[in-house]
Amino acid sequence: MKLNGIDYDTYFKNYPNEKGYYGNYGGRYISDDLKNAMKEITDAYFTICKSSKFISELRKIRKEFQGRPTPISYLERLSSSLGNVQIYAKREDLNHTGAHKLNHCMGEALLAKYMGKKKVIAETGAGQHGVALATAAAYFGLECDIYMGSVDIKKQAPNVARMKILGANVVEVTHGLQTLKEAVDSAFEAYSRDYKECIYCIGSVVGPHPFPMMVRDFQSVIGIESREQFLEMTGELPDAVVACVGGGSNAMGMFSGFLNDPVDIYGIEPLGRGTTLGDHAASLQYGTEGVMHGFNSIMLKDENGEPAPVYSVASGLDYPSSGPEHAFLRDSGRVKYDVIGDDDTIDAFFELSRKEGIIPAIESSHAVAYAMKLAKKMGKGSILVNLSGRGDKDMDYIIEKYGIR
Ligand SMILES: *Cc1c(COP(=O)(O)O)cnc(C)c1O
Fold first, then answer.
1. Which pick of 94, 244, 372, 383 has the fewest CB atoms within 10 Å?
2. What's the pLDDT score for residue 207?
3. Same domain, yes or no, for 243 and 361?
4. Is residue 374 part of a domain?
5. From its phi and psi, is residue 27 left (phi > 0), alpha (psi between -120 and 50) or beta?
6. 204 with 323: CB under 8 angstroms?
7. What is the structure's pLDDT at 179?
8. Residues 154-207: pLDDT tens digits?
9. Which range marks the domain in which residue 88 is found?
10. Which of 90, 101, 181, 393 is labelled catalytic?
11. Mind listing the pLDDT tens digit for each residue in 275-333?
12. CA–CA separation, 390 vs 393, rounded Å?
């Protein structure tokens, strides 16, 4: 399929280019030390991860440890309450540890093992990426350092406990605002000091090349499975595919399976409390081009051009930028990006729970809310929504803040 001069038949050969660019976006805006480390990872990725041994070991892990393939569920009661559109969900909530994040963590940790590294390093905000990586590290017998701001450590006690039980070392970051941004800086600093012994495992399709590409490729299992399963279930492709976008890994995984198909693709960002800067985290909707965390993309900036404070009811979506490939797919017109606010999200959280017996993560509830809106607009056809994770982690917060609806 061709659109605006881009041939999606050969898309994965051309994007990213050898410098890690998707059009203007992506690249490597980092110190020389880190550039060496990134070059090492890139070389290893292209040799090791394309080897049949690596591929078959990862396939075995996906099946026997992660519980893949995850199913697609037809959401019959939800669909019929909205009209004549059939809504389906890809059940990444049924992946081991309850979300899609393990898809790339197992890939990254397996790569670490093949490269002979002893340790994996990462940052975490709400703790979801930290838990997934700690799980992967335990599985492969790797040491694991997770950098986390003091503020987040206090807020996310259950995830801190999980990481510790899994044997990870949670490193407290005490400078600045003591949240995700400082944790990223500290983790990268530790990594540049020690990159011969360890490997940095990023949490989404962000960061310097090759991370956006590598994480997309590891997450593409979602899209590949979905396309096959949907065809088998219905004999057709879905008319539309929907996923939530924080950094954008679950979305890129899903979208990559359908870029070359006549399928409408929607990436949904959190509008939070509204359109004022600071009240949302919809970077692709309201941001401008800029560099942060080692890559060029679309980001929300404050008056000094620094990453702006962002907000979302979903802690996994409150990032002031998005992966460079999303910025590119936005400009190219292949993917439509739209927003959903907190209120519609919480409604969708309860709707899916009540009508289908599935409690979704608040992040995923953004995609569900948009699918519900889109179903009413479309009137007929089918929608496949990526249910990136389960909502057990969010229940206490929802009950406390919103009560039982
Ligand atoms: C972390 C997380 C997200 C957001 O990350 P992406 O990289 O945008 O996919 C979405 N859903 C769940 C359940 C998460 O844990």
1. 94
2. 95
3. yes
4. yes
5. left
6. yes
7. 85
8. 988 999 999 999 999 999 999 988 888 889 889 999 998 999 999 999 999 999
9. 67-99+220-402
10. 101
11. 999 999 999 999 999 999 999 999 999 999 999 999 999 989 989 999 999 999 999 99
12. 8
CATH of the domain at 386: 3.40.50.1100
Residue 14, in any domain of the structure: no
List the residue whose alpha carbon is closest to atom 13 of ligand 1. Answer: 389
Respond yes or no: is residue 101 known to be catalytic: yes
Structural domains in the chain (count): 2
Give Cβ neighbours of residue 336 (< 8 Å, ≥ 6 apart). Answer: 264, 265, 266, 267
Crossing angle between the packed helical segments 324-332 and 211-234, to the nearest 10 degrees? 60
- Give yes or no: 388 in active site: yes
Ligand 1 center to residue 93 CA distance, Å? 11
> In the numeric block, which tokens belong to residue 278?
């600071």
Tell whether ligand 1 has an atom less than 6 A from the beta carbon of residue 103.
no
65 C-alpha to center of ligand 1: Å?
20
Instruction: Name the residue at shortest CA distance from atom 5 of ligand 1.
Output: 246
Pocket test for ligand 1, best of 388, 393, 395 (most atoms within 8 A of CB): 388
The residue from 216, 241, 267 where one domain ends is 216
Together in a domain, 343 and 212: no
| Mean per-residue pLDDT, 245-269 | 98
pLDDT tens digits along 345-386: 999 999 999 999 999 999 999 999 999 999 999 999 999 999
Q: Which helix (H) or strand (E) holds 210?
A: none
Residue 117 annotated in active site: no
- 219 CA: nearest ligand 1 atom: 9
Domain C-terminal end among 216, 233, 249: 216
Between the CA of 129 and the centroid of ligand 1 the distance, in Å, is 9
Q: How far is CA 316 from the centre of its chain?
A: 9
The answer as to whether 13 is a domain residue is: no
User: Separation of 249 CA from ligand 1 center, angstroms?
Assistant: 7
